[in-house]
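One-letter codes give the sequence; the fold follows as C-alpha cells. Both lines appear below.
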Amino acid sequence: MKIGLISDTHGHLDPRIAALFAGVGHILHAGDIGGEPLLGELRAIAPVTAVLGNTDGHLRDHGIRDVERRALGGKTFLVIHAGRPHGLTEDVRRMIFDGEKPDVVVFGHTHQPERIVENGVVFVNPGSASRPRMHHPATVAIAEIHADGRLEVHWLKLG
C-alpha cells in the first residue's frame, strides 16, 4: 500500500502533487492546511486524514482535530502537527509511548523532511509542500508498506 504524506501546505496545493500521489490509497496531512478547499483537492486524489496545525484554528468547525490515528496497510499511523520526538508535550509522549504505540508518527511544523526512529516508532516529516526552510526544497513523501510489512519512505521534491 502507498500512502501520501503531506504537511504545511498553507493554502497552496502544488499542481504536481496530483500526479505524484496518483495511486496512493490514502493521504495523511500533518497540519497547517490553510483551508477546507485544499482538503477537497486532496480528496479528489484519495481519502484524506488531516490534523490541525498551529495556523488552522478556523478548521476546527470542519471536524478537523489535533490528533488522528489510522490503521493503514497493517501499520498504525498517528498524525500530529508538531511531533519531533524531542519536542513532544507530555500528553502526546504518553499517547505515543505508553498507550497503543503507533508504528509511524507523521508530523510537520518544522518544514524540514526527516525520518527519526525512537523506541521503535518511526517519526516522519514529509517537509513543507509550499514553504520550504533551511535550504530544503518543497517536498511531499510516499510511505510504502510492502507485503512483508516493511515500511519505506520516499521524499519527492516539488521544486
